[in-house]
Amino acid sequence: MAKIEGKEHPSVGLFRDYLRIRTVHPNPDYDGAIAFLEKLSTEVGLPYKKVEVTPGRVVLIVSWEGTDPKLKSILLNSHMDVVPAFEDQWRFDPFAAQKDEEGNIYGRGAQDMKCVTIQYIEAIRKLKSEGKRYLRTIHLSIVPDEEIGGQNGMKKLTEHEAFRALNIGFALDEGLANPTDAYTAFYGERNVWWVIVHCPGSPGHGSRFIENNAGEKVRRVLNSFLEFREEEKKRLNSSKCLTLGNVTTVNLTTLKGGVAYNVIPNELIASFDIRIPPTEDLQAFEEQLKKWCQNAGEGVFFEFFQKTMSDKLTSTDLSNPWWNAFSSACREMDMTVQTEIFPASTDTRFIREMGYPAIGFSPMNHTPILLHDHNEYLNEKVFLKGIEVYSHLLPTLASVSHLSGEA
Ligand code: ZN
User: Are 19 and 160 found together in one domain?
Assistant: First the structure.
Protein backbone atom coordinates (compact mmCIF):
# COMPACT_ATOMS: atom_id res chain seq x y z
CA MET A 1 0.00 0.00 0.00
CA ALA A 2 3.03 2.28 -0.20
CA LYS A 3 2.52 5.44 -2.14
CA ILE A 4 3.81 5.06 -5.66
CA GLU A 5 6.54 7.67 -6.03
CA GLY A 6 5.11 10.87 -7.44
CA LYS A 7 1.83 9.22 -8.22
CA GLU A 8 -1.25 9.02 -6.08
CA HIS A 9 -2.51 5.62 -4.94
CA PRO A 10 -5.64 4.82 -6.99
CA SER A 11 -7.66 4.13 -3.82
CA VAL A 12 -6.89 7.68 -2.65
CA GLY A 13 -8.06 8.96 -6.01
CA LEU A 14 -11.37 7.12 -5.59
CA PHE A 15 -11.79 8.48 -2.07
CA ARG A 16 -11.26 12.02 -3.32
CA ASP A 17 -13.68 11.50 -6.22
CA TYR A 18 -16.31 10.29 -3.77
CA LEU A 19 -15.76 13.34 -1.52
CA ARG A 20 -16.48 15.59 -4.49
CA ILE A 21 -20.02 14.25 -4.85
CA ARG A 22 -22.18 16.71 -2.93
CA THR A 23 -24.26 14.38 -0.80
CA VAL A 24 -24.82 17.26 1.59
CA HIS A 25 -28.08 18.07 3.33
CA PRO A 26 -30.61 19.48 2.72
CA ASN A 27 -30.42 18.35 -0.94
CA PRO A 28 -27.97 15.47 -1.11
CA ASP A 29 -26.96 14.21 -4.54
CA TYR A 30 -27.80 10.58 -3.78
CA ASP A 31 -28.19 9.73 -7.48
CA GLY A 32 -24.65 10.87 -8.11
CA ALA A 33 -23.29 8.85 -5.18
CA ILE A 34 -25.18 5.71 -6.17
CA ALA A 35 -24.06 5.96 -9.80
CA PHE A 36 -20.44 6.30 -8.59
CA LEU A 37 -20.72 3.32 -6.23
CA GLU A 38 -22.49 1.17 -8.83
CA LYS A 39 -19.64 1.80 -11.24
CA LEU A 40 -17.08 1.00 -8.56
CA SER A 41 -18.85 -2.24 -7.58
CA THR A 42 -18.97 -3.34 -11.21
CA GLU A 43 -15.28 -2.58 -11.61
CA VAL A 44 -14.45 -4.71 -8.54
CA GLY A 45 -16.76 -7.46 -9.82
CA LEU A 46 -19.29 -7.29 -7.00
CA PRO A 47 -23.00 -7.76 -7.66
CA TYR A 48 -25.30 -5.14 -6.16
CA LYS A 49 -28.92 -4.27 -5.85
CA LYS A 50 -30.80 -1.09 -5.18
CA VAL A 51 -33.55 -1.14 -2.59
CA GLU A 52 -35.90 1.82 -2.48
CA VAL A 53 -36.74 1.75 1.23
CA THR A 54 -39.03 4.76 1.04
CA PRO A 55 -39.98 6.89 -2.00
CA GLY A 56 -36.84 8.62 -3.27
CA ARG A 57 -34.55 6.94 -0.74
CA VAL A 58 -32.41 4.15 -2.17
CA VAL A 59 -30.03 1.84 -0.30
CA LEU A 60 -27.28 0.18 -2.30
CA ILE A 61 -26.50 -3.38 -1.23
CA VAL A 62 -23.23 -4.77 -2.58
CA SER A 63 -22.37 -8.40 -1.94
CA TRP A 64 -19.34 -10.67 -1.96
CA GLU A 65 -20.59 -14.19 -1.71
CA GLY A 66 -18.91 -16.62 0.63
CA THR A 67 -18.22 -20.29 -0.02
CA ASP A 68 -21.17 -21.19 2.22
CA PRO A 69 -23.79 -18.51 1.53
CA LYS A 70 -26.28 -20.18 3.86
CA LEU A 71 -24.23 -19.12 6.87
CA LYS A 72 -24.87 -15.83 8.59
CA SER A 73 -23.23 -12.91 6.83
CA ILE A 74 -21.07 -9.94 7.77
CA LEU A 75 -22.70 -6.56 7.18
CA LEU A 76 -20.54 -3.52 6.50
CA ASN A 77 -22.77 -0.49 6.85
CA SER A 78 -21.95 3.07 5.87
CA HIS A 79 -23.90 6.21 5.03
CA MET A 80 -23.60 8.35 1.90
CA ASP A 81 -24.80 11.66 3.29
CA VAL A 82 -22.80 14.40 4.98
CA VAL A 83 -23.67 17.41 7.13
CA PRO A 84 -23.49 20.96 5.75
CA ALA A 85 -20.22 22.90 5.90
CA PHE A 86 -19.67 26.60 6.63
CA GLU A 87 -17.49 27.10 3.57
CA ASP A 88 -16.01 30.44 4.68
CA GLN A 89 -14.55 28.75 7.78
CA TRP A 90 -12.67 26.15 5.76
CA ARG A 91 -9.10 26.21 4.53
CA PHE A 92 -10.24 24.71 1.23
CA ASP A 93 -13.53 24.16 -0.55
CA PRO A 94 -15.16 21.33 1.50
CA PHE A 95 -16.26 19.59 -1.71
CA ALA A 96 -12.99 19.84 -3.67
CA ALA A 97 -11.12 17.07 -1.78
CA GLN A 98 -7.98 19.17 -1.79
CA LYS A 99 -4.82 17.46 -0.53
CA ASP A 100 -2.18 19.53 1.25
CA GLU A 101 1.61 19.05 1.26
CA GLU A 102 1.33 16.65 4.23
CA GLY A 103 -1.14 14.40 2.46
CA ASN A 104 -4.14 15.59 4.47
CA ILE A 105 -7.28 15.34 2.37
CA TYR A 106 -9.86 17.98 3.25
CA GLY A 107 -13.51 17.38 2.64
CA ARG A 108 -16.89 17.10 4.29
CA GLY A 109 -17.24 13.38 4.85
CA ALA A 110 -13.48 12.71 4.93
CA GLN A 111 -13.95 11.16 8.41
CA ASP A 112 -17.73 10.83 8.56
CA MET A 113 -17.77 8.50 6.70
CA LYS A 114 -16.91 8.40 3.02
CA CYS A 115 -13.45 7.09 3.90
CA VAL A 116 -14.96 3.91 5.36
CA THR A 117 -17.15 3.11 2.33
CA ILE A 118 -14.16 3.30 -0.01
CA GLN A 119 -11.96 1.38 2.45
CA TYR A 120 -14.50 -1.47 2.63
CA ILE A 121 -14.63 -1.74 -1.17
CA GLU A 122 -10.89 -1.34 -1.71
CA ALA A 123 -10.10 -3.99 0.90
CA ILE A 124 -12.42 -6.41 -0.91
CA ARG A 125 -10.85 -5.45 -4.25
CA LYS A 126 -7.41 -6.29 -2.83
CA LEU A 127 -8.52 -9.64 -1.39
CA LYS A 128 -10.38 -10.59 -4.57
CA SER A 129 -7.39 -9.71 -6.74
CA GLU A 130 -5.31 -12.11 -4.64
CA GLY A 131 -7.83 -14.83 -5.49
CA LYS A 132 -9.13 -15.04 -1.92
CA ARG A 133 -12.59 -16.16 -0.94
CA TYR A 134 -14.02 -16.80 2.52
CA LEU A 135 -16.63 -18.89 4.24
CA ARG A 136 -19.23 -16.22 4.94
CA THR A 137 -20.83 -13.71 2.61
CA ILE A 138 -19.94 -10.06 3.14
CA HIS A 139 -22.62 -7.48 2.38
CA LEU A 140 -22.19 -3.73 2.18
CA SER A 141 -25.21 -1.56 2.85
CA ILE A 142 -24.71 2.04 1.77
CA VAL A 143 -27.55 4.12 3.13
CA PRO A 144 -28.99 7.65 2.89
CA ASP A 145 -30.17 10.05 5.60
CA GLU A 146 -28.05 8.95 8.58
CA GLU A 147 -27.22 12.57 9.35
CA ILE A 148 -30.89 13.46 9.68
CA GLY A 149 -31.75 10.61 12.03
CA GLY A 150 -31.90 7.59 9.73
CA GLN A 151 -35.69 7.26 9.95
CA ASN A 152 -36.01 7.12 6.14
CA GLY A 153 -32.71 5.32 5.66
CA MET A 154 -31.36 2.59 7.94
CA LYS A 155 -34.53 2.38 10.04
CA LYS A 156 -36.60 1.66 6.94
CA LEU A 157 -34.01 -0.78 5.66
CA THR A 158 -34.16 -2.81 8.89
CA GLU A 159 -37.93 -3.09 8.40
CA HIS A 160 -37.55 -4.19 4.76
CA GLU A 161 -37.61 -7.84 3.71
CA ALA A 162 -34.35 -7.24 1.83
CA PHE A 163 -32.72 -6.74 5.21
CA ARG A 164 -33.94 -10.03 6.62
CA ALA A 165 -32.71 -11.75 3.47
CA LEU A 166 -29.16 -10.61 4.28
CA ASN A 167 -29.16 -13.12 7.17
CA ILE A 168 -26.74 -11.05 9.23
CA GLY A 169 -24.52 -12.50 11.92
CA PHE A 170 -22.45 -9.44 12.74
CA ALA A 171 -22.20 -5.83 11.57
CA LEU A 172 -19.61 -3.10 11.40
CA ASP A 173 -20.60 0.56 11.18
CA GLU A 174 -18.97 3.91 11.84
CA GLY A 175 -16.84 4.93 14.80
CA LEU A 176 -14.68 7.96 15.54
CA ALA A 177 -11.11 9.01 14.91
CA ASN A 178 -8.61 8.61 17.74
CA PRO A 179 -5.85 11.24 18.15
CA THR A 180 -3.47 8.72 19.75
CA ASP A 181 -1.82 5.57 18.40
CA ALA A 182 -4.91 3.58 19.47
CA TYR A 183 -8.15 2.86 17.63
CA THR A 184 -11.59 3.07 19.20
CA ALA A 185 -14.29 0.41 18.89
CA PHE A 186 -17.80 1.27 20.02
CA TYR A 187 -20.00 -1.45 21.50
CA GLY A 188 -23.07 0.62 22.37
CA GLU A 189 -24.59 4.07 22.00
CA ARG A 190 -26.11 6.54 24.39
CA ASN A 191 -29.84 7.12 24.23
CA VAL A 192 -31.13 10.43 22.93
CA TRP A 193 -33.87 12.26 24.79
CA TRP A 194 -35.02 15.65 23.55
CA VAL A 195 -37.18 16.88 26.39
CA ILE A 196 -39.50 19.88 26.21
CA VAL A 197 -40.48 21.27 29.61
CA HIS A 198 -43.59 23.45 29.82
CA CYS A 199 -43.81 25.91 32.71
CA PRO A 200 -47.27 27.50 32.83
CA GLY A 201 -48.01 30.33 35.27
CA SER A 202 -50.26 33.23 36.16
CA PRO A 203 -49.79 36.20 33.87
CA GLY A 204 -49.82 39.79 35.08
CA HIS A 205 -48.20 43.19 35.03
CA GLY A 206 -44.42 43.22 35.05
CA SER A 207 -44.36 45.66 37.97
CA ARG A 208 -45.88 43.30 40.55
CA PHE A 209 -45.07 40.21 42.68
CA ILE A 210 -47.31 37.75 40.87
CA GLU A 211 -47.54 34.37 42.62
CA ASN A 212 -47.30 31.08 40.71
CA ASN A 213 -45.41 32.65 37.83
CA ALA A 214 -43.69 30.89 34.93
CA GLY A 215 -40.29 32.49 35.49
CA GLU A 216 -39.89 31.05 38.96
CA LYS A 217 -40.87 27.62 37.73
CA VAL A 218 -38.45 27.67 34.83
CA ARG A 219 -35.72 28.74 37.27
CA ARG A 220 -36.35 25.64 39.42
CA VAL A 221 -36.40 23.42 36.32
CA LEU A 222 -33.09 24.87 35.13
CA ASN A 223 -31.58 24.43 38.60
CA SER A 224 -32.55 20.76 38.84
CA PHE A 225 -31.52 19.82 35.31
CA LEU A 226 -28.29 21.80 35.32
CA GLU A 227 -27.21 20.76 38.82
CA PHE A 228 -27.46 17.18 37.60
CA ARG A 229 -25.40 18.21 34.58
CA GLU A 230 -22.72 19.55 36.91
CA GLU A 231 -22.65 16.31 38.93
CA GLU A 232 -22.22 14.23 35.79
CA LYS A 233 -19.48 16.53 34.54
CA LYS A 234 -17.65 16.10 37.86
CA ARG A 235 -18.12 12.33 37.68
CA LEU A 236 -16.63 12.22 34.17
CA ASN A 237 -13.61 14.26 35.24
CA SER A 238 -13.11 12.24 38.42
CA SER A 239 -12.01 9.06 36.71
CA LYS A 240 -9.72 8.31 33.80
CA CYS A 241 -11.73 5.14 33.15
CA LEU A 242 -14.83 7.11 32.18
CA THR A 243 -15.51 8.58 28.75
CA LEU A 244 -18.39 10.71 27.51
CA GLY A 245 -20.23 7.53 26.63
CA ASN A 246 -20.36 6.49 30.31
CA VAL A 247 -22.09 9.57 31.72
CA THR A 248 -25.35 11.42 31.10
CA THR A 249 -25.08 14.84 29.48
CA VAL A 250 -27.83 17.44 29.87
CA ASN A 251 -27.80 20.63 27.85
CA LEU A 252 -30.30 23.46 27.70
CA THR A 253 -30.89 23.99 23.99
CA THR A 254 -33.90 26.32 23.61
CA LEU A 255 -35.84 28.77 25.78
CA LYS A 256 -39.11 30.14 24.52
CA GLY A 257 -41.85 32.42 25.76
CA GLY A 258 -43.00 35.88 26.57
CA VAL A 259 -45.04 38.45 24.67
CA ALA A 260 -43.88 41.87 25.91
CA TYR A 261 -41.25 43.40 28.21
CA ASN A 262 -43.84 44.40 30.82
CA VAL A 263 -46.06 41.30 30.76
CA ILE A 264 -45.42 38.23 32.91
CA PRO A 265 -46.01 35.35 30.46
CA ASN A 266 -48.51 32.55 30.95
CA GLU A 267 -45.96 29.99 29.81
CA LEU A 268 -42.21 29.56 29.39
CA ILE A 269 -40.76 26.54 27.63
CA ALA A 270 -37.29 25.08 28.03
CA SER A 271 -35.88 22.25 26.00
CA PHE A 272 -32.96 19.96 26.81
CA ASP A 273 -30.80 17.59 24.81
CA ILE A 274 -30.09 14.66 27.12
CA ARG A 275 -27.86 11.69 26.25
CA ILE A 276 -28.02 8.67 28.53
CA PRO A 277 -25.77 5.60 28.57
CA PRO A 278 -27.54 2.31 27.76
CA THR A 279 -26.26 1.04 31.10
CA GLU A 280 -28.46 3.48 33.06
CA ASP A 281 -31.89 2.66 34.46
CA LEU A 282 -33.94 4.63 31.95
CA GLN A 283 -37.28 4.22 33.75
CA ALA A 284 -35.77 5.52 36.96
CA PHE A 285 -34.28 8.50 35.12
CA GLU A 286 -37.66 9.35 33.60
CA GLU A 287 -39.17 9.24 37.12
CA GLN A 288 -36.43 11.65 38.22
CA LEU A 289 -37.36 14.08 35.44
CA LYS A 290 -41.01 13.88 36.53
CA LYS A 291 -40.00 14.65 40.11
CA TRP A 292 -37.94 17.68 39.06
CA CYS A 293 -40.94 19.00 37.14
CA GLN A 294 -43.35 18.37 40.01
CA ASN A 295 -41.02 20.16 42.41
CA ALA A 296 -40.78 23.13 40.05
CA GLY A 297 -44.38 24.10 40.70
CA GLU A 298 -47.97 23.62 39.74
CA GLY A 299 -48.68 22.47 36.19
CA VAL A 300 -45.07 21.94 35.10
CA PHE A 301 -44.82 18.98 32.72
CA PHE A 302 -42.58 17.63 30.01
CA GLU A 303 -42.94 15.87 26.69
CA PHE A 304 -40.50 14.09 24.44
CA PHE A 305 -39.57 15.23 20.97
CA GLN A 306 -37.21 12.29 20.67
CA LYS A 307 -36.77 9.35 22.98
CA THR A 308 -34.78 6.16 22.48
CA MET A 309 -34.93 3.42 25.10
CA SER A 310 -32.13 1.05 24.27
CA ASP A 311 -30.11 -1.05 26.66
CA LYS A 312 -28.49 -2.99 23.82
CA LEU A 313 -24.76 -3.51 24.11
CA THR A 314 -22.58 -5.73 21.93
CA SER A 315 -20.55 -8.04 24.10
CA THR A 316 -16.81 -7.37 24.11
CA ASP A 317 -16.19 -10.62 25.88
CA LEU A 318 -14.04 -13.14 24.04
CA SER A 319 -16.90 -15.64 24.36
CA ASN A 320 -18.63 -13.56 21.66
CA PRO A 321 -17.16 -15.23 18.54
CA TRP A 322 -17.51 -12.03 16.50
CA TRP A 323 -15.72 -9.86 19.03
CA ASN A 324 -13.13 -12.60 19.43
CA ALA A 325 -12.52 -12.49 15.65
CA PHE A 326 -12.48 -8.69 15.55
CA SER A 327 -10.10 -8.27 18.46
CA SER A 328 -7.78 -11.10 17.47
CA ALA A 329 -7.39 -9.61 13.97
CA CYS A 330 -6.53 -6.26 15.60
CA ARG A 331 -4.02 -7.95 17.89
CA GLU A 332 -2.34 -9.64 14.94
CA MET A 333 -1.83 -6.20 13.43
CA ASP A 334 -0.45 -4.85 16.74
CA MET A 335 -3.30 -2.41 17.01
CA THR A 336 -4.34 -1.05 20.39
CA VAL A 337 -8.13 -0.98 20.57
CA GLN A 338 -10.03 1.02 23.19
CA THR A 339 -13.65 0.03 23.73
CA GLU A 340 -16.21 2.74 24.42
CA ILE A 341 -19.89 3.62 24.31
CA PHE A 342 -20.54 6.01 21.42
CA PRO A 343 -21.38 9.44 22.89
CA ALA A 344 -23.86 10.43 20.17
CA SER A 345 -25.99 8.23 17.95
CA THR A 346 -25.51 6.52 14.61
CA ASP A 347 -27.40 4.07 12.43
CA THR A 348 -25.77 1.24 14.41
CA ARG A 349 -28.56 1.59 16.97
CA PHE A 350 -31.11 0.27 14.47
CA ILE A 351 -28.92 -2.77 13.79
CA ARG A 352 -28.48 -3.49 17.51
CA GLU A 353 -32.20 -2.96 18.09
CA MET A 354 -32.84 -5.82 15.63
CA GLY A 355 -30.74 -7.97 17.93
CA TYR A 356 -27.56 -8.15 15.85
CA PRO A 357 -24.15 -7.64 17.42
CA ALA A 358 -22.51 -4.57 15.91
CA ILE A 359 -19.31 -2.62 16.43
CA GLY A 360 -18.78 1.02 15.47
CA PHE A 361 -15.31 1.29 14.01
CA SER A 362 -13.61 3.76 11.67
CA PRO A 363 -9.90 2.93 11.37
CA MET A 364 -8.43 6.39 11.94
CA ASN A 365 -5.70 6.70 14.56
CA HIS A 366 -3.32 9.67 14.91
CA THR A 367 -6.26 11.78 13.73
CA PRO A 368 -8.12 14.55 15.55
CA ILE A 369 -11.89 14.04 15.82
CA LEU A 370 -13.24 16.44 13.22
CA LEU A 371 -16.59 14.98 12.24
CA HIS A 372 -19.13 17.77 11.62
CA ASP A 373 -16.32 20.29 12.29
CA HIS A 374 -14.64 22.85 10.04
CA ASN A 375 -11.66 21.55 8.04
CA GLU A 376 -12.60 17.88 8.39
CA TYR A 377 -9.68 15.93 6.94
CA LEU A 378 -8.03 12.54 6.84
CA ASN A 379 -4.41 11.88 6.01
CA GLU A 380 -3.92 9.68 2.95
CA LYS A 381 -1.51 7.37 4.82
CA VAL A 382 -4.08 6.81 7.57
CA PHE A 383 -6.70 6.20 4.90
CA LEU A 384 -4.51 3.61 3.15
CA LYS A 385 -3.63 1.96 6.47
CA GLY A 386 -7.39 1.61 7.01
CA ILE A 387 -7.65 -0.49 3.84
CA GLU A 388 -4.95 -2.76 5.25
CA VAL A 389 -6.83 -2.98 8.53
CA TYR A 390 -10.02 -4.12 6.75
CA SER A 391 -7.95 -6.49 4.60
CA HIS A 392 -7.13 -8.34 7.84
CA LEU A 393 -10.43 -7.85 9.63
CA LEU A 394 -12.75 -9.01 6.87
CA PRO A 395 -11.07 -12.39 6.26
CA THR A 396 -11.08 -13.10 10.01
CA LEU A 397 -14.73 -12.13 10.42
CA ALA A 398 -15.84 -13.95 7.28
CA SER A 399 -13.97 -17.07 8.43
CA VAL A 400 -15.70 -17.41 11.79
CA SER A 401 -16.61 -21.08 11.73
CA HIS A 402 -20.11 -22.54 12.03
CA LEU A 403 -21.88 -21.28 15.12
CA SER A 404 -24.32 -23.33 17.11
CA GLY A 405 -27.66 -23.21 15.32
CA GLU A 406 -26.09 -22.75 11.91
CA ALA A 407 -26.50 -25.54 9.39
ZN1 ZN B 1 -21.54 9.37 10.33
Answer: yes
